[in-house]
Amino acid sequence: MPVPFSDCSDSYDVIVIGSGLGGLTTANRLAYCGHSVLLLEHHHRLGGLATWFKRKGHIFDISLHGFPFGMIKTCKKYWNREIMGSIVQLKNIVFDNPQFSLRTTFDKDDFTSILNIKFKIPLTVINDFFTTVAGMNFYDDQTMTTRELFEQFFPGRTDVHRLLMEPITYANGSTLDDPAITYGIVFSNFMNRGVYTFEGGTDKLIHMMADELEKNGVTISTRSRVDRIVTEKNKVIGVEVDGRVIKAGAVVSNSGITNTIHNLTDRSCFSDEFIERADAIRVNNSSCQVYIGIKEEESIQDVGDLLFTSTSEEFDSAELLDLHTRSKTFSLYYPKTRPGHNRYTIVASMNSRYDDWATLSDDEYRAEKERMAQRAVEDLSRYLPDVKGKIDWMESATPLTFNRYTLHTLGTSFGTKFEGLDISRSIFKEVPGLFHVGSVGIIMSGWLGAINYGVIVANDVDTYLRS
Ligand SMILES: Cc1cc2nc3c(=O)[nH]c(=O)nc-3n(C[C@H](O)[C@H](O)[C@H](O)COP(=O)(O)OP(=O)(O)OC[C@H]3O[C@@H](n4cnc5c(N)ncnc54)[C@H](O)[C@@H]3O)c2cc1C
Q1: Beta-sheet pairing, 219-221 with 37-40
Q2: In the predicted structure, residue 22 carries a pLDDT above the cut 90
Q3: 342-396: pLDDT as tens digits
Q4: Going by CA atoms, what residue is nearest to atom 10 of ligand 1?
Q5: 142, pLDDT greater than 80
Q6: Nearest C-alpha to atom 53 of ligand 1 is from which residue?
């Protein structure tokens, strides 16, 4: 149970700022290793972007759309078997666009068969492609872009590029011009065994994680926004919340890396060379979502678990980000997704740029939100023609919404582009005792990336505290 900030002690071994999946995992691992840990979260609930909200009997999940099979092993090893036990496969992934319409289990066998039979790509080329992407590592050469990778294997085949790229753009915000490794690593993770979800919803997962934190003795304080990371002689000594300083041997920031460097830490602690590289970090895109709730007495037919739909002629990374994009993903949540909760909800997700929304007047903002919701219902009606009359709740979120709830620079959904990874990994070399965990470098984002990164950073902190 979270405690009021006033009840927190004056010092801990470690303070974790932020309770995204990365922060939660680092806090849990360090407490498990015997360190005293304080977890401070500015919002009233834990989870960061792994969150949910309730309206009129509906529970809407924000970022529970799909993650790779690797989550099963990660949760078993670093959380517990109960959490692992609720991870189930989504078997019905649907694509519908002017170039093709198909249904897939989104794994290597099915993709091989689709590429070979439907797209007429020779098996040798498909196998070579899979072998190449499966062999990619994050320390590999970053000069080749995803566009170049696709042209090498499937020259001029924009339909194949779309099949391979569209879901990954939604999953981590990467574009055709990002380093091919940011595509290859994430794509291979999914191809391993398909797309998975957490049965019971994000609320169940975060409550189970909170129980585990409590068991391991983490002190949690929500509604506690850290204003400053306190340093002395360039070394971390604690954090400041509402004018009160709490001391710690190490501080782990799960706030965005750009926030951590530019807003939370005294910039004079960093070398000029580090600041120069930090200033060059590009923040990844944000998202828009439309949440649609179906009346209690109504049902909808099964049209897939994830539906990648677009009326745009070809895949184009810029089109997916446009304020008026014609591409979106529908996540359909049936009663089976939340056993015991007999409701249907649908979430439409679009990639989006913060500045497109932040520069609108209040009236324009309201009008654009309304138009976005209407477009979502129109698009959904192509698959569920009678859906309009069944809806009893609609609400939308924009990049400004994500910024408000997580404080992320430009409301980013997936942290930073590739260059953020090195900065995040080396921050403790600049300021002893200061660590960063959370979505960076595209690879370390998403539910699996954030949790795995949480484990890596916990090991760094443990080594530092023991040395
Ligand atoms: C719309 C959307 C859909 C997504 N869909 C998927 C998906 O289907 N699959 C998938 O794997 N991933 C998905 N993601 C991405 C995934 O949710 C994130 O990459 C991951 O949850 C981020 O975890 P994190 O550890 O980086 O922390 P975050 O979730 O970013 O949390 C950071 C936390 O730090 C807190 N904080 C920040 N500053 C302070 C401060 N000064 N003091 C106190 N607290 C602070 C914030 O309030 C927040 O709770 C999606 C994201 C979005 C936005």
Answers
A1: parallel
A2: yes
A3: 899 999 999 999 999 999 999 999 999 999 999 999 999 999 999 999 999 999 9
A4: 446
A5: no
A6: 413
Q: Which residues pair with 60 in a beta bridge?
A: 53
40 token code pair: 């401070």
Task: Give yes or no for residue 410 CB within 6 A of ligand 1.
Answer: no
Q: Are 454 and 22 in contact (CB under 8 A)?
A: yes
Is there a single domain that holds both residue 295 and residue 401? yes
Distance 126 CA to ligand 1 centre (A): 34
Q: Are residues 438 and 340 in the same domain?
A: no
Tokens (6 digits) for 431:
């300021």
Q: Could you report the per-residue pLDDT of 267-301, keeping only the tens digit for each?
A: 999 999 999 999 999 999 999 999 999 999 999 99
Mark whether 45 and 156 lie in a shared domain: no
| Ligand 1 atom with minimal separation from the 440 CA | 26
Which residue out of 5, 61, 63 has the highest number of ligand 1 atoms within 8 Å of its CB and is therefore the one to mutate?
63
pTM for this structure?
0.97
CATH code of the domain in which 232 resides: 3.50.50.60
Counting from 1 in the atom list of ligand 1, the atom nearest the Cα of 286 is 53
| Nearest residue to 289 via CA among 342, 200, 351, 224 | 351
Closest ligand 1 atom to residue 65 Cα is: 8
